[in-house]
From TrEMBL:
Requires a divalent cation, most likely magnesium in vivo, as an electrophilic catalyst to aid phosphoryl group transfer. It is the chelate of the metal and the nucleotide that is the actual substrate. Catalyzes the phosphorylation of ribose at O-5 in a reaction requiring ATP and magnesium. The resulting D-ribose-5-phosphate can then be used either for sythesis of nucleotides, histidine, and tryptophan, or as a component of the pentose phosphate pathway. The gene is rbsK. It comes from Rhizobium lentis. It catalyses: D-ribose + ATP = D-ribose 5-phosphate + ADP + H(+). Belongs to the carbohydrate kinase PfkB family. Ribokinase subfamily. Residues 2-290 form the Carbohydrate kinase PfkB domain. This is Ribokinase.
């Protein structure tokens, strides 16, 4: 079983011909809303990948709450660990440029009221061998408590180091598996401006220090990882991206689901990379997450 402990948002998405520069206003050419939040996105990806998933987090008592949970509910995700609190549901304000790149501002709302007690409740319902997936859009003390409680129970923890907050390097040391993009990995390693050779050297160094499985996503260049002293690489698909906003979360959810399904590590990386590529072909974080059949067909 997979439990995802993290954020639940509504995404407000505007599309433009190009992203604005600081202080600049540009004309938009489209607007949409979509359920999001890194936690909810990853939970839905793991569920669409075919695994049983609990979502743990919080939503507000407002008009966005039901819509934020709708796709998770429709997919059969267990929502019994989602609390409803006074105030707004978390929101993400997203600008998507014509080349598919994006800019995002996140307002925590109910996500900011997720607590260490919520983490204790979520982990308390898990068993040894289960998978706990976390991100950094809920308070640091809640994430830290969840990671510590998971380790004490023999639960495999996966931490996605996003968004990149000051506590990310410290929290990264507490997880069994860390997933980071290039920038996040540089912060974890304490080394800026890495080329491919320096990145692989840093992977080996950190792995020797911690014994952790470390995964670095590289956008169109695929993924590089180290586990049990062995470096693995995987490629996604050659695509023309429409919207990259859901790619990283789709990768994370599919990777967790693949491990939970008993796939070997290189196969799990490849499946997750292909799923992440497919998520770039549609707009919105959750609507873009592919089904397991779509991923299998493309592999």
């Amino acid at each position: 079983m997979i439990t995802v402990f993290g954020s639940i948002n509504m995404d407000l998405i505007a599309t433009t011909a190009r992203l604005p520069k600081p202080g600049e206003t540009v004309a938009g050419n489209g607007f949409a809303t979509a359920a999001g939040g890194k936690g909810a996105n990853q939970a839905l990806a793991a569920r669409r990948a075919g695994r049983y998933v609990h979502m743990a987090g919080g939503v507000g008592k407002d008009g966005f709450a039901a819509d934020a949970l709708a796709l998770l509910d429709d997919a059969g995700t267990d929502l019994s660990l989602v609390k409803h609190v006074d105030g707004p549901t978390g929101t993400a304000l997203i600008l998507v440029g014509g080349d598919g790149e994006n800019m995002i501002a996140v307002v925590p709302g109910a996500n900011g009221l997720v607590t260490a007690a919520d983490a204790e409740t979520a982990v308390g319902r898990m068993n040894e061998g289960d998978i706990l997936m976390l991100q950094l859009e809920v308070p640091v003390d809640a994430v830290e408590h969840a990671l510590s409680a998971a380790r004490a129970k023999g639960i495999t923890s996966i931490l996605n180091l996003a968004p990149l907050i000051p506590d990310a390097p410290r929290l990264g040391r507490l997880a069994d598996i860390v997933i980071a993009n290039e920038t996040e990995f540089e912060r974890l390693a304490g080394q800026d401006g890495m080329d491919a050779e320096a990145r692989e050297a840093a992977l080996h160094r950190l792995h020797q220090e911690t014994g952790q499985t470390l995964i670095v996503t590289l956008g169109g260049d695929g993924v590089i990882a180290i586990r049990d002293g062995v470096v693995s690489r995987a490629q996604g698909l050659k695509i023309e991206p429409v919207d990259t906003v859901g790619a990283g979360d789709t990768f994370c959810g599919y990777f967790a689901a693949s491990l939970d399904d008993g796939l070997d590590f290189p196969t799990a990386l490849r499946r997750a990379a292909v799923a992440g590529s497919l998520a770039c072909l549609k707009s919105g974080a959750q609507p873009s997450i592919p089904s397991s059949k779509d991923v299998a067909d493309r592999i």
